[in-house]
Design goal:
Blueprint lengths: L2 E6 L6 H11 L3 E7 L1 H6 L8 H9 L6 E5 L5 H7 L3 E5 L8 H12 L4 E5 L5 H15 L1 H14 L3 E5 L3 H9 L1 E4 L2 E4 L2 E4 L1 H7 L10 H14 L4 E4 L6 H14 L3 E5 L1 E2 L14 E2 L2 H14 L6 E6 L8 H13 L4 E4 L7 H13 L5 E3 L9 H6 L4 E4 L2 H20 L12 H7 L4
Parallel strand pairs: 1-2, 1-4, 2-3, 4-5, 6-9, 6-17, 9-10, 10-11, 11-14, 14-15, 15-16, 16-17
Antiparallel strand pairs: 7-8, 12-13
The chain binds sulfopyruvate (SPV) and magnesium ion.
Magnesium ion binds next to α9.
Length: about 425
């Protein structure tokens, strides 16, 4: 009897999956692959039930003869092991980044005379509703909030991109590229105080108040499912910070990062060019501890950001602070630098990891941008934040368009470099 293989990456079975099984049955024994959590997250499908539960779900389906675990969304291992006569899949993978996987599967099958079967993708109202419900579930505070901690465990480095509006949130949520046989996407979003302020035409000095910052979070949450790390600046007064923690937690934000500065906060990338005052270890530790006491769930994270390298206070000071802040209850340490050379960041990470193997480390490589995610992960970094690149790419493009329309007295000259109306419309989900 021939073997037919299909890979499922879902928590909910709908008509589309049943249709695939029906078609598969016509060709032989049906083996379903269940993607591991690690593989699913690379596939833009964050699991809401465990792998064991998914295996059980697939096994119970009529017509399924066997369920195996597929560890990677590329089929190499599973095809080598099962040598299926057929691989069957919905034809939706003919387009977009997934088409690379399809081509790869086709080539693997060709090596031994296997065949690929594309089944017309089922997209009816019921399927659409289930897709929507799954997304909604992921967007709910209790699912979204814990996702950052889950990601830290599941992936070598959590790739985080800045978002400051619904539209930039959508870009972070939906951008997927295929590169060298892998699908790449961002894992989380950073709500930068710099970019949130800049989008409002205001300086990054804690002038945009929390109510307005929460509004930005809400705009982003409305249209996305990925976890959110909030830039909490100094956290403000401890008496206020405890309320901020509660609000963020309730909204479903996964983490707040607060920096050890006090008084008028200026952006760190100014360094010592402007007057900035670092909080003492005791002051910052008290704020962290108060925040942790206020927190109600186990999911939320308070991450302490250390400004010693920015303010040229030295490595020993940075490390002493890291140690103290973890003791005060910090769930992670962010170390910042404005040097082009990543050396001081790597030195900090290595020295910190010598006495603390587990507390997550966060870095923001805006200045030291030559370093790769792989190199950072090798030095024990858990979260990388691309803190301002979307804002910095959009601004010059908009400025140039405005200048050219003024210059030519019409919009024709700029049209070639604009996104089409159709593209922008399809970026926005309709209910
Ligand atoms: C932000 O994005 O607002 C940050 C990171 O705090 S930095 O601008 O590098 O200080
Ligand atoms: Mg900031």
């Amino acid at each position: 009897m021939k073997t037919v293989y299909t890979c499922f990456c879902t928590d909910v079975i709908h008509d589309g999956h049943l249709n695939i099984i029906e078609k598969a049955k016509e060709h032989g024994r049906v083996v379903v692959g269940a993607l591991t959590d690690e593989a699913l997250i690379k596939y833009n499908r964050f699991p809401t039930i465990s792998l064991e539960e998914r295996i059980k779900l697939y096994k119970e389906l009529d017509g399924v003869d066997e369920v195996v675990v597929q560890k990677d969304f590329m089929y190499n291992d599973v095809i080598a092991e099962i040598k299926p006569d057929y691989v069957i899949h919905g034809d939706n993978w003919k387009n977009g980044p997934e088409s690379a996987i399809r081509e790869h599967v086709e080539a693997l099958l060709k090596e031994y005379g296997g065949e690929l079967i594309d089944v017309p993708y089922t997209y009816n109202e019921k399927v659409k509703k289930i897709d929507m419900q799954l997304r909604e579930k992921l967007a709910m505070p209790e699912y979204r909030r814990k996702r950052l901690r889950q990601l830290i465990k599941m992936t070598p480095i959590v790739k985080t991109m800045e978002a400051h509006s619904g539209l930039t949130g959508l870009i972070v949520e939906k951008t997927v590229v295929e590169h060298e046989g892998k699908l790449e996407q961002f894992d989380a979003m950073w709500i930068s105080s710099l970019c949130d302020s800049t989008a409002k035409g205001k300086p990054d000095i804690e002038l945009v108040d929390m109510t307005s910052r929460f509004r930005t979070i809400d705009d982003i949450m409305e249209v996305t499912t990925k976890p959110i790390i909030f830039d909490g600046d100094t956290g403000g007064l401890t008496e206020h910070f405890v309320y901020t923690v509660r609000s963020l937690e309730r909204m479903g934000v996964s983490a707040v990062i607060i920096e050890d500065k006090k008084g008028l906060k200026k952006n760190s990338l100014f360094g010592t060019e402007v007057k900035q005052t670092q909080a003492t270890i005791e002051e910052m530790s008290a704020k962290i501890a108060a925040g942790k006491r206020a927190q109600l769930t186990d999911d939320f994270m308070i991450i302490a950001r250390i400004e010693s390298l920015i303010l040229e206070q030295g490595m020993e000071d940075a490390l002493a602070r890291a140690k103290a802040f973890v003791e005060a209850g910090a769930d992670g340490i962010m170390i910042h630098s404005r040097k082009k050379d990543p050396a001081e960041i790597l030195e900090f990470c290595d020295k910190f990891r010598a006495f603390d193997k587990t507390t997550p480390i966060v870095v923001v490589p805006s200045s030291f941008n030559t370093i790769t995610e792989e190199e950072l992960a090798a030095h024990g970094v858990n979260i990388v934040i691309y803190a301002n690149q979307l804002t910095r790419s959009a601004f010059p493009a908009m400025q140039k368009t405005a200048e050219d329309i003024l210059k030519y007295h019409r919009a024709k000259e700029v049209d070639d470099r604009l996104m089409s109306i159709k593209e922008i419309i399809t970026l926005i989900d309709e209910i």
